[in-house]
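User: Hey, quick favor. My workstation is busy. Could you predict this chain's structure for me?
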Amino acid sequence: MAGPKNVLGTELITCGTDPMTGFYRDGCCHTGASDVGVHVVCAVMTDDFLKFSRSRGNDLSTPNPAYQFPGLKSGDRWCLCAGRWKEAYDAGMAPGVVLEATHVSALEFASLEELSKHALND
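Assistant: No problem, here it is.
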């Protein structure tokens, strides 16, 4: 059985394990019915994006042990909600993206062209 696909149409690779990311905390940005936030964009955090996200009511810098959330810093890879990434893109604050680790369902929120403008090499 083939695994989940990324936005390039190839097999989805691991986004990050330090800190452990993914809705299912398995390092991958795949999704399922219980993932209402659609955590599918493998993003590399920047200080500017973390400040932007906090200003929009989503503090990603502060740890929240109840959700196994360590708090993020610049340089961390994180499976970001696709809607939040698109919001940041529209505001000129989008973090970099690892396309090979970004789930194909991200294309329901942002175009491949938009994501590619912020693509980082793995």
